[in-house]
Amino acid sequence: MHSLLLRLYGGATWLLQPMLRRKLRRRAVAEPGYAFAVEERFGRYDEAMSGTGWVWIHAVSLGETRAAGILIDALRHQDPSLRVLLTNGTATGREEGARLLGPDDLQVWQPWDTPEVVERFLDRFRPRIGILMETEIWPVLTAACADRGIPLVLANARLNEKSLASAKRLAWLSRPTYASLAAVWAQTEADSHRLVAAGAKVDGVFGNLKFDATPDSLQLGRAARLREKLPRPVVVFASSRDGEEALLLDVLQRFRHAPPVGWSPAAGKKVHLPMQDVQWMIVPRHPQRFDEVAQLIESKGFVVARRSAPAAAAGEDAEIWLGDSLGEMAMYYGLADVALLGGSFEPLGGQNLIEAAACGCPVIMGPSTFNFAEASELSLEAGASLRVEDMEQAVVSALTLMADPVRQNGMVQAALTFSSAHRGAAARTAAAIGNLLLRISESTGEPAALA
Fold first, then answer.
1. What's the rounded Cα separation, in Å, for the pair 281 and 279?
2. Domain-embedded: residue 449
3. In this predicted model, what pLDDT tens digit does every residue of 174-194 receive, in sequence order?
4. Which residues are designated catalytic?
5. pLDDT means per 10 residues in the chain (451 residues)?
6. CA–CA distance, 387 with 184 (Å, rounded to integer)
7. Do 285 and 168 lie in a common domain?
8. Which listed site, 137, 176, 392, 429, has its alpha carbon 20 to 30 Å from 228?
């Protein structure tokens, strides 16, 4: 029965290929990376792209790719001769992934989930193991790997309640897919329970790989030097999503003329908290929205300075700074005295707050953090973050914290302690991969690297 349903699913994805091509063309208008090597998505590769014995890692987007980078470093520590085949699904993921490649590594797009495309992908590269990052499972690909005896694992695995509900609605397809995975290593106990409910066999709860990330020391050094010259503390709205920037700007507009009242420890009483006492910075999550957000800021009556603009055009008079660059979050967090957490002020589940903690940047989060539920709660318990109900409370909390340097410094130290206390997932995951390959080699007689 499952094979019949899988064939029907594969037929549907085959019929959807023209729609995928149209979608890629539309996306490429804003993000040219989507126009690059399009045929790879359909299993057609340059002749030089081949080989065997790859450790294949799939990371769909930017966040998963950064987690993959941490795991790759741990795997290379075990086996310096490691040859990585990295696949991605988004342009930002592929751009970030290119930075992870060694001279013998290879990067291609994720194969579209039809039988023909998947067969061409597996025939060309013949990986000895496939490592899917966090959430990304595809029914045809998973079944094909199982048929060929290629162990396919889900690492740094997470599953929120919304995704679990979707999996249950499509249980005829999702349960066999989860069940066919060779191993699943969950981030948290709660993720483990949800993955089991979806049909997976969870082999361990290893924590979140992102705690093992080391912030770029050059970026932090640059941020420290800039901070010494700044006349005001900085509040960054980090990884903001569509609709959230308008929430912030509307609050700042109101507070421009009627500043809120908050407690000042220095004055020993309640005082007005002018929004002009803070340098506000917005860093959108998606690069295709940089121009849109710049126009929005100006339409709300604020002077904006863009990171991408020449230095002369980004003077200190700008009320809002726009971080319109990729790969510089460590610098932005290093500049900031506190961060507002993007994705948490609309029902989007929040963005990753672990990187902020590693940079010693306290976080103010909104009500929606289901994508990082356990990390958010642990951060709150550690005193590294605050939770508020809406954007107005977030702005008031940020201004109040800026008026209390002692409390702000305490949260900085709490963030650093919180970050260091939860490391170790990379070593645990790398060891589990090595052990899996060792067991396979013992049963097949083939040599096992990483073990």
1. 7
2. no
3. 999 999 999 999 999 999 999
4. 64
5. 82 95 94 95 90 92 94 95 96 95 96 97 95 94 96 96 93 94 96 97 96 94 94 96 97 93 74 89 94 96 91 66 93 98 96 95 97 92 97 97 95 97 96 91 65 49
6. 31
7. no
8. 392
| Nearest CA among 164, 214, 221 for reference residue 371 | 164
| 192 occurs within a structural domain | yes
What's the structural domain count of the chain? 2
The label of the residue with tokens 């170790």 reads 424
DSSP character for 110? P
**Has residue 396 been placed in a domain?**
yes
- Measured CA to CA, the distance from residue 148 to residue 154 in angstroms comes to 18
**Do 82 and 120 belong to one domain?**
yes
Query: Does one domain contain both 404 and 272?
Result: yes
Q: Is residue 451 part of a domain?
A: no
Same domain flag for 154 and 298: no
Q: Give the CATH number of the domain where residue 176 resides.
A: 3.40.50.11720
The β-bridge partners of 126 are: none
Cα of first residue to Cα of last residue in the chain, in angstroms, is: 38
H, E, C per residue of 56-101 = EEECCCHHHHHHHHHHHHHHHHHCCCCCEEEEECCHHHHHHHHCCC
Q: Which of 333, 298, 334, 305 is nearest to 321 (CA)?
A: 305
Let me know whether 254 and 198 are in one domain: no
Domain of residue 348, residue span? 217-421
**Model-level pTM?**
0.85
pLDDT digits (tens, 9 = 90+) for 345-375: 999 999 989 999 999 999 999 999 998 888 9
